[in-house]
Amino acid sequence: ERAAALGVRVVDAKVHGVRQDEHAVTAAGLTARWLIAADGLHSPLRRALGLDRPASGPGRYGLRRHFP
Question: Does residue 57 belong to any structural domain of this protein?
Answer without folding.
Answer: no
